[in-house]
Amino acid sequence: MELVEINFDGLIGPSHNYSGLSFGNLAATAHAGQVSHPRAAALQGLEKMRHNMALGLPQGVLLPLPRPNNAYLGALNADKDTDPAITAMAWSASSMWTANAATVSPAPDTADGRCHLTPANLVSMPHRAHEWPDTFRQLQIAFASTAHFALHPPVPSSFGDEGAANHMRMCTGHGSPGLEIFVYGRPGGRFPARQHEQASRAIARGHLLDPARTLFIEQNPDAIAAGAFHNDVVAVANETVLFCHELAFAEPEATYAAIRKSLPEAEIIVVPASEVSLADAVSSYLFNAQLVSLPEGGMGLVVPQECTEQAATSAYLACLIASNGPVRRVLPVDVRQSMSNGGGPACLRLRVVADPATIDPRFLIDEARADRIEQVIRADWPEMIAPDDLRSEALEAQVVAARQRLLAALDLEQLG
Asked: Do residues 194 and 260 touch, judged by C-beta distance below 8 A?
């Protein structure tokens, strides 16, 4: 069985809108009330998938959840006219950021030799807390082989869990045993700390991880206050490389020492605040990048185009490549619609190390399936959505029908 890393991107759904529901996410709140472009957003996300496939990387997809979530409105004894904020929560397309879909521990790390997945409960944000049952349904189908996968229920809502956005894995190769790093926040700061330490510890126990190869690290409160609402806004890891901001962790030197103790091969690239400030890191999403192992050797950093347009990050990336270190290529992608709502390339993907043959093929992407998805997007996704449109029955009918056509095109009507 050959284990490879597969990036499962969330396809941006037809209800993509800018309601500014994510407190602490500076981009989301800055663009609240603006007109969104769901068709352009989905095409940008699909193009990123194609971009990564062209690099020779395996690619998967997770599909938009049913929106508006009328069951959610019903549970609140509400309808579209009750409260604009509640209506927006029921319409939220934030499941596109599949870094928050689940935490994943590959088979080489677990005591039973299976890949373990725990969907995130996302209780810190009301507009996301109702995602997990539908996410769970997709994961049940995609990873149905109980011989190879163990799917857990979410952590109880007493503790907030936001999934892989606060989890990193370092290893000498994707198919080798790894060091799993859980990053949590402390409550009481300017913005809510969305990942609770006890949620991370509960997941590690459930995934049957070796305590000697598991770290629990506190995120720097200053990073959270600056808008790094998830760890993946200030740090990203791949195989032996950790790429992080100087102010990513509360105790950086102790963090680096613990990583090197468990993984002596670790290469830690620390970006000084004097070269890239926290504000620049958050606005450009320099660290919300995909750090990937290239088939030809070395690593590539898939970054938002904004990183090449901002002076500090552009200058830093030029020096990074010139240093002839492990990161050999900088690969910009256009995900502006997602960026405006607070999610870069890393937010849009969930990393799963597995044998592709053990996964339901309907969730794996090739050019033919990408073409089918594109046809549906171009024909059925709304061109634009303004905040007041969320009360429109005509828009609701269009969004529901668009998702149904996508499910039919991918032979996944059972998710309807």
From this structure: no
